[in-house]
Amino acid sequence: MTAAPKVPKYYAVRTELERIVDTLEVGDAVPAERDLAERFAVSRETVRQAFHELLVEGRIERRGRGTVVAAPKLVQPLSLLSYTEGAISHGRVPGRLLVTWEDIVGDDELCGELQIARGSTVMHLERVLLADGAKLGLESTFLPWDRFGSFTDTFDPTTSLYAAIREAGVTFGSANERIETVLASPREATLLETTTAMPMLLMHRRSLDVDGRPIEKVRSLYRGDRVAFEAILRE
Questions:
Q1: Alpha carbons 5 and 2: distance in angstroms, whole number
Q2: CATH topology of domain 9-69
Q3: For 2-47, what is each residue's pLDDT tens digit?
Q4: CB count, 10 Å around CB of 69?
Q5: SS3 sequence of the chain
């Protein structure tokens, strides 16, 4: 008879820690590593490993010198909804912090994807995405300046870009998206108040209007501990 595999100490601690978290409310303090190490008669390093896994999964989060129960992940639909619409649909308060707003000369690849002449001016907008004040993602959007250059004088970067595009008379028709897992650069980790060890979800999107004309190219980086994506599939 084959013996059952031995359960690692950290995993047993993690299981108990999950049970503790399930009894608490969002924002409640989680017992300190030292207290848990004494309770379970293990080293603090063992407890720290269990903490790390729950941090990555978004069950708990660091707040100051302590650890608290985290809010549920923001589940974003894979659709032509804007980030604002997706957040509101889940009862969250969306927000944005402007990082960069500049006009750049598009390289050959970018101009090709936006179907504009080589060397054309492209508007680059980089913003931190918020939900209930928490930093969830970093969005970098590229727009053809000859089509959306007026936004320099009219657009409020703390609001929904998709709403502004629609108000300009442009109707979204389709989008191509690719999602992969990556680690953040030091700059990105700083902007999102996390570490370079935190798994991230990287989304590349290219949106077209109803006539098949490119609207935007977007690179969005989301904290894996705070955001998830879902899609509705039909035959």
A1: 9
A2: Arc Repressor Mutant, subunit A (1.10.10)
A3: 554 566 787 888 999 999 999 999 999 999 989 999 988 899 999 9
A4: 19
A5: CCCCCCCCHHHHHHHHHHHHHHCCCCCCECCCHHHHHHHHCCCHHHHHHHHHHHHHHCCEEEECCEEEECCCCEEEECCCCCHHHHHHHCCCCEEEEEEEEEEEECCHHHHHHHCCCCCCEEEEEEEEEEECCEEEEEEEEEEEHHHHCCHHHHCCCCCCHHHHHHHCCCCEEEEEEEEEEEECCHHHHHHCCCCCCCEEEEEEEEEEECCCCEEEEEEEEEECCCEEEECCCCC
Residue whose tokens read 């980030």: 83
Among 120, 136, 125, 134, which Cα is nearest to 165's?
125
User: Which residue bears the tokens 């389709």?
Assistant: 174
Domain parsing of the chain, residue ranges? 9-69, 74-230
Look up the pTM and report it: 0.82
Strand partners, 218: 141, 205
Contact assessment for residue 143 and residue 169, using Cβ atoms and an 8 Å cutoff: no
Contacts of 210 (CB under 8 A, 6+ apart): 171, 172, 173
User: How many whole angstroms from its chain centre is CA 26?
Assistant: 20
* 74-230 is a CATH 3.40.1410.10 domain: yes
pLDDT tens per residue across span 193-206? 999 988 999 999 99
